[in-house]
Amino acid sequence: MATQTKRDYYEVLGVARDADLKAIKAAYRKLAVKYHPDRNPEDPDAERHFKEASEAYAVLSDAAKRANYDRFGHQGVEGQGFTGFDPNAFGDFADILGDLFGFGDIFGGRRRGGSRRTGPRRGRDLQYTLRIDLEEAATGIERTLRLPRLEECGTCNGTGAEPGTSLEGCSTCGGSGQVAFRRGFLSVAQTCPSCNGAGRVNRHPCTSCSGRGRTERESSLRVKVPPGVDTGMRLRLTNEGEGGVQGGPRGDLYVVIAVEPHDVLERHGSDLHMELPISAFKAMLGTEVELNTILGGTVKVEIPSGSQPGDVIEVRGAGMPDLDGGRKGALHLHLKVVIPRRLSGEQRKLLRDAAKLGGDDVAESEGLLGKLERWLIGS
Fold it and tell me: Would you state the pLDDT for residue 227?
């Protein structure tokens, strides 16, 4: 009987001889989808084409095998080429075919990152949003948090089994967490239905935690917020997250800061801005005002004579502190000149006299507000 001649591997995959690994893998994925026996149950040639493509990919995706094949042809890879679905030789196929057909590692091994982890595991990290006001952000505070979280069960010490008992190896999967069955000509692995992939079964669950190994409790934590924090900043409290599984380490707690808006002050980094209303008379004559600072003290601010609406006075060191405890930002005062709506007769006379001295001959019919505004802005 004549022996069937093998086709060239590059021809099988439909790629050039200088194709890179990315092109070879893409070509194989395309053929695997087209010829997979599960998708072609009525086509007797599908399995043959699928095996042929898989054999070509097994050789051309391996640098050493490909070099031998390029030099000696099929004889160069005999005995080390395609010898069946060996999990060690075809680890890449789990990524290609498992993703395409959705049944995990069809070669009987565990998919990378896809199997259920057994044994001790680190607890989850938790996040808590802490809302504070601007004064608290400036001075720093200590706050007690009430935090519900999963803690290691004190009865079973996190094992999930009643004291005096232990978890047993799963007899269904032999502790591997997976069982295999045949799908066409392939051996397909799936999660063990008896242990749900854990590899062990709990015959005597702990009555305190129902076998989970952890219970939910509310804990009180004291957190110290440093001066200068701003919205979005995170404080990390190591080992204050959820308790670990089966004796694993605790997770961390991240406290996210949210600074509430202030009624008067607006923050820009370490600088503060506020609108300061002053009367038109004080703006013209100049004055001194005393203001409270964000850190609880007071500061005296000189308003120069002739100040105009919208002028900004910078008070250095009266803003927010930096997180490093060094310099403080500035307080920026945006002047808002308030023009009085009503004046006494004497005030009217004085303003008219002042206007005349300034070179403006105002007429009473213009209205006091219009005259004052025109005089203040110099138009």
Answer: 94
